[in-house]
Amino acid sequence: MPPLVPAAPAPSGPASLIVATASYATPMLNGKRLAGPQEPPHTSMWFLLYAQAVQADGATMRNVLIATEPGVFANRTLATIDPSLEPYFGTLATNSFKSLNRTAVAAFHQAQVESILASVHLPASSSLSVIAVELLPGGTANNIGNLAGVAMAAVVPRGNMSFPFGRILRASPLEPVAPFC
Question: What residues make up the domain containing 74?
Answer without folding.
Answer: 20-176
